[in-house]
Amino acid sequence: MAPTPPRHSGTRVHVVSDVHGNARDLARAGEGADALICLGDLILFLDYADHSRGIFPDLFGVENADRIVELRTARRFGEARELGARLWAGLDGDRAQVVEQAVRKQYAELFAAFPAPTYATYGNVDMPPLWPEYAREGTTVLDGERVEIGGRVFGFVGGGLRTPMRTPFEISDEEYAAKIEAVGEVDVLCTHIPPDVPELVYDTVARRFERGSRALLDAIRRTRPRYALFGHVHQPLVRRMRVGATECVNVGHFARTGTPWALTW
């Protein structure tokens, strides 16, 4: 495990989530901070704001990207899967190998942009088995684990819950709840997905409720961390609200803003 920053007054931590290929701004995200925290979703499969960006349009073209976004936004997931299946069937080469090659290219650039120290956990579109190959010295990967930064205890839980989107790192409610339980009481609880609160899980642009975690919400109420930090919902109805004694904060869609959220104490 990478060393934590020295304990001192005036600790500053920058937090990012939903990086989705934005290596340029990621390289500057730790400036002025004692540490960077990344809450996952490094990979860019498809940019819903710019359909020409990502692994999907690189492979299948912008017109097909336009169509699959249209279907998913309309929640016509079955038709979207059928379109995807036809496109993949017409592609030369093994699907898994093609995707892994594209992901590896993105990971090489993104992990190289992480400053030291960085503490990172997975998002729902990430591929955890590849992370050990790219996490350099100074980058600590945590999932269902805790670390001390500047005298405060941070807990990390990565991944997302299962959805019709079938993104790469979706896990069962039971597995997710076990990781929340393993973290226990912390000062700052860091996750990719939000707690299951309607205002925090509703995306105002996609016009749908994303999946939040009930186990996470229960843990927040029970253990009362100072902060619960997360991402996942790119355009939330509410970015920040208090649940009991805990300040719940969506740290923002870093791929679009290029600006980290700052926590100081």
Write up what this structure looks like:
The chain has 265 residues and is α/β, with parallel strands linked by helices. Helices cover 33% and strands 21% of the residues. The chain contains 10 helices and 15 strands. It has helices spanning 23-26, 55-60, 62-73, 77-89, 95-113, 131-134, 173-183, 198-201, 214-223, 254-257; strands at 12-16, 35-38, 118-120, 139-141, 145-149, 152-157, 160-161, 170-171, 188-191, 202-203, 208-209, 227-230, 240-243, 246-250, 261-264. A 6-stranded mixed sheet has the order 5-6-9-12-14-13, with helices on one face. Strands 4-3-2-1-15 form a 5-stranded mixed sheet, with no helix packed on it. It is globular, with a radius of gyration of 18 Å.
Summarize the structure.
By secondary structure, this protein is of the alpha/beta class. It has helices spanning 23-26, 55-60, 62-73, 77-89, 95-113, 131-134, 173-183, 198-201, 214-223, 254-257; strands at residues 12-16, 35-38, 118-120, 139-141, 145-149, 152-157, 160-161, 170-171, 188-191, 202-203, 208-209, 227-230, 240-243, 246-250, 261-264.
Give the helix/strand layout:
Layout (H helix, E strand, L loop, with lengths): L11 E5 L6 H4 L8 E4 L16 H6 L1 H12 L3 H13 L5 H19 L4 E3 L10 H4 L4 E3 L3 E5 L2 E6 L2 E2 L8 E2 L1 H11 L4 E4 L6 H4 E2 L4 E2 L4 H10 L3 E4 L9 E4 L2 E5 L3 H4 L3 E4 L1
Parallel strand pairs: 1-2, 2-3, 3-4, 6-9, 7-8, 9-12, 12-14
Antiparallel strand pairs: 1-15, 5-6, 10-11, 13-14
Helix pairs in contact: 3-4
Number of strands: 15
Count helical runs: 10
Mean pLDDT across every amino acid position: 94
Query: Termini distance?
Result: 23 Å
SSE class: alpha/beta
Q: Helical proportion?
A: 25-40%
Strand portion: 15-25%
Give a quick account of the main beta sheet: strands, pairing sense, barrel closure.
Answer: 6 strands, mixed
Sequence of secondary-structure elements: EHEHHHHEHEEEEEHEHEEHEEEHE
What's the overall geometry? globular
Low-confidence stretches: none
**Strand numbers in spatial order across the main sheet:** 5-6-9-12-14-13
Radius of gyration, in angstroms, nearest whole number: 18 Å
